[in-house]
Amino acid sequence: MPEQSNLKPVLTAAQVNALMETVYAKLNGPFRFYEVLDVFPGGCTVRLNADERHLRPGGTVSGPSLFTLADIGGYVCVLSHAGPDALSVTTNLNINFVRKAEAGPIDGHCRILKLGKSLMVFDIDIVAGPEGHTVAHATGTYSIPPRRANDVVK
Question: What is the pTM of this model?
Fold first, then answer.
């Protein structure tokens, strides 16, 4: 995914992972199912380490698990590019499921389409399997709250 040199991250992947562990401690539990692999200008790469708890009948990864990965991709983009304000919220998320995914690593390649003062628009290509085929594609919007000292997670 091409970098957008006009959008500079303010947090690294390690910093976002640490923030997510603090803000959403129960999301992963003792094992990191959802994680940030990379943050780069204009986007990020996130991963779902899918196991049996993410499977639906038939042995494929459930839609809600892939939807969560898409939402986390947008959240990581807004945190890493607009700042570590945990109060940013999803205002819209649309997803298309294009093929089934099996347990194992599933990556989301997320890019920021527009970053404004109050909204961020993004898309994410979710890929899986040894050949990295697209299993889902999503577009979404995050609301960025006005900056207030008490809202920022430090």
Answer: 0.90
